[in-house]
Amino acid sequence: MDPRAREHLLTESEAAQFQRDGFFIVEEALPNSIVERLRELTAEVVQEDRVRLGIKENRYHGVIDFIGQRDEFLQLVDWYRTVPKVCGLLGSEIKLYHTVGMETPRAEGWSLESHQDWANWHTDTGNLTRDLAQGGFNPMISLKVGYVLSDLTAPKMANFTCLPGSQNCIDYPGANRQNIEKEAVQVLAPAGSAIIFDRRLWHTPSLNLSSTTRYMIFNGYSYRWLANRDEQRVKHFYRRATPIQRQLLGFSNHGAYGSSNSFPDDLPLRDWFKDVNLSKTG
Ligand SMILES: O=C(O)CCC(=O)C(=O)O
Ligand SMILES: [Fe+2]
């Protein structure tokens, strides 16, 4: 891992924002040169998938199992400006469990009134809340890092849209899941930022009424024992990945037995941060 990771630990203010709102923004998480390259590659991978699946050009499309699709995506697995913050929230015994590359073109023919065609309020990781939540207990288990690859500095550009604070609501707290609620926030963030959000936060895709196509990469991290949410075809990375990257790609020296245990040889990320107080949440 890049040694500069130690300068990018979760701050107290980020921890407080995450606790209160369910998300925070890391500005300048990626330099411009990398943003541009990732945007090009995301466009390419999404286009291939649109053709394969016959998906229209004017609808958003996310490619899951994204991380293994191009060699240059490997650098994001343990990116030094974001992953230390993920460790501050989940600890270091984590992995990537789900990755998505998303393209949201201008919604030609749609207007603000037709938001319901796009709105899909949800929390992440499928059935976790259904199967775990009991009497106000609903552990986080996973979170996502959304890398913003095109400028989202004004609303209605398919900004990440959420109900801040709703990570504490087991049921959808709004009035109508087909609407973009009045209290919803369209997160403004320049290209190169990362939005780190709790999987329990209620959020939705939203319309892009601008002339810029929106590109984002969403990398989901979880405890190592969670089942992956996509095929995670990443074995081709193993040979050139660092031990920390291999951990984050889900590798264990102990096969299936490893992920629900803490064998020291499976946890280079824990070693890397062993002298550091990662967590600001106590
Ligand atoms: O496109 C968006 O902003 C929402 C994406 C989303 O729901 C997710 O990555 O979990
Ligand atoms: Fe989501």
Overview of the structural elements:
By secondary structure, the chain is of the alpha+beta class. It has a single domain, classed as q2cbj1_9rhob like domain (Jelly Rolls, Sandwich). The protein has 7 helices and 9 strands. The protein has helices at 12-21, 32-53, 74-77, 83-90, 128-132, 243-248, 268-272; strands spanning 23-26, 61-64, 94-104, 142-148, 161-162, 185-186, 194-198, 203-204, 214-223. The strands form 2 sheets. A 6-stranded antiparallel sheet has the order 1-7-4-9-3-2. The longest helix has 22 residues, at 32-53. The chain is globular and about 55 Å long. The model has no long low-confidence stretch (mean pLDDT 95). 2-oxoglutaric acid is lined by residues 100, 102, 124, 144, 160, 203, 205, 218.
